[in-house]
C-alpha cells in the first residue's frame, strides 16, 4: 500500500462527502477536538487508543489518520511497536496483520 497516495485519495473522498453533510462534519469535528484535548490522558495516549481501535476494526484510513497524528506528536518507533503488540494480543491474527500495516504507515510518515 502506498500510504501517502492512499491518504491523499481518502482525504479527497472525505472532503467531497463533507460537502453533503456539513452539520454532521461540524459536530464530528467538535467531538474530535474535545476527545483529543489533553486531560488526565495526553493527546498522544488518546491517539494510541484510537489506533488500537482502528486496528481492531480494520479501518485503513483510520490507521493512516491516527499514525500521522502519532508521528506529529513525537511517538517513537519503540512506543509504536509496544502499542501494536498490545493491539495484536487483544485482536489476534487480523490485528497482527493490521498492526504490521500500521508499522509500515509509521515508517512512511516518519521518513
From TrEMBL:
<dbReference type="GO" id="GO:0051920">
    <property type="term" value="F:peroxiredoxin activity"/>
</dbReference>
<dbReference type="InterPro" id="IPR003779">
    <property type="entry name" value="CMD-like"/>
</dbReference>
<dbReference type="InterPro" id="IPR004675">
    <property type="entry name" value="AhpD_core"/>
</dbReference>
<dbReference type="InterPro" id="IPR029032">
    <property type="entry name" value="AhpD-like"/>
</dbReference>
<feature type="domain" description="Carboxymuconolactone decarboxylase-like">
    <location>
        <begin position="22"/>
        <end position="104"/>
    </location>
</feature>
<dbReference type="Pfam" id="PF02627">
    <property type="entry name" value="CMD"/>
</dbReference>
<protein>
    <submittedName>
        <fullName>Carboxymuconolactone decarboxylase family protein</fullName>
    </submittedName>
</protein>
Amino acid at each position: 500500500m502506498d500510504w501517502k497516495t492512499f491518504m491523499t485519495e481518502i482525504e479527497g473522498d472525505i472532503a467531497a462527502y463533507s460537502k453533503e453533510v456539513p452539520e454532521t462534519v461540524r459536530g464530528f469535528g467538535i467531538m474530535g477536538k474535545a476527545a483529543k484535548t489533553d486531560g488526565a490522558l495526553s493527546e498522544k495516549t488518546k491517539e494510541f487508543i484510537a489506533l488500537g481501535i482502528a486496528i481492531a476494526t480494520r479501518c485503513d484510513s483510520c490507521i493512516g489518520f491516527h499514525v500521522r497524528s502519532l508521528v506529529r506528536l513525537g511517538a517513537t518507533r519503540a512506543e509504536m511497536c509496544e502499542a501494536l503488540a498490545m493491539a495484536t494480543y487483544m485482536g489476534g491474527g487480523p490485528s497482527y496483520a493490521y498492526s504490521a500495516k500500521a508499522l509500515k504507515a509509521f515508517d512512511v510518515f516518519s521518513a
